[in-house]
């Protein structure tokens, strides 16, 4: 689980960097395909972490 959280944090950092670069170039975030793709990666990782946490909480009950 900690490896997944580390990966999520790294992907979030990448997303933030892409977003900042896009805004500096006056490119709206929704018009930047690289930002959108990275955002989907982060969303997928967040969903995986949520699923794992939900499974763990069910086991603990």
From TrEMBL:
Keyword Coiled coil: yes
Source organism superkingdom: Bacteria
Alphabetical UniProt keywords: Coiled coil
Coiled-coil stretches noted in the UniProt entry, renumbered to this chain: 1-55
Protein name: Aspartyl-phosphate phosphatase Spo0E family protein
Native source organism of the sequence: Paenibacillus pabuli
Source lineage: Bacteria, Bacillati, Bacillota, Bacilli, Bacillales
